[in-house]
Amino acid sequence: MPGLYVGANAILDRRQRYDLPFEHYWQSESEVPPVAVRSYQMVQSFVGQPVNGIGIDQDITYIDDEAGVPQWLQPA
Q: What share of the chain is helix, strand, coil (3-state, %, to 5)?
């Protein structure tokens, strides 16, 4: 089930993204416009302290405004 990662310099506006055939949206750490109707199911944020010497981002999941949730793959 595909989703859309919305990163910096996204060229589509909130309505254009919603009109695409996606139900799952992931917001990058950068400042991006909201998704019309649904909202983001996963939001990336900056973690100031490196973990084991490596800079990471934190991803937080949410139930969107249409009661959608991120989908996780299960191994076969």
A: 5, 25, 70
Distance CA 17, CA 6 (A): 9
Strand duo 57-61 + 4-6: pairing: unpaired
> How far is 71 from 35, CA to CA, in rounded Å?
18
pLDDT digits (tens, 9 = 90+) for 1-49: 789 999 988 889 889 999 999 999 999 998 888 889 999 999 999 898 9
Instruction: Determine the Cα–Cα distance for residues 34 and 13; give it in Å rounded to an integer.
Output: 9
CB contact at 8 A, 33 and 14 = yes
Specify whether the CB–CB gap between 64 and 40 falls below 8 A: yes
Q: Give the end-to-end CA distance of the chain in Å, rounded to a whole number.
A: 16
Residue 1 CA to its chain's centroid (Å): 14
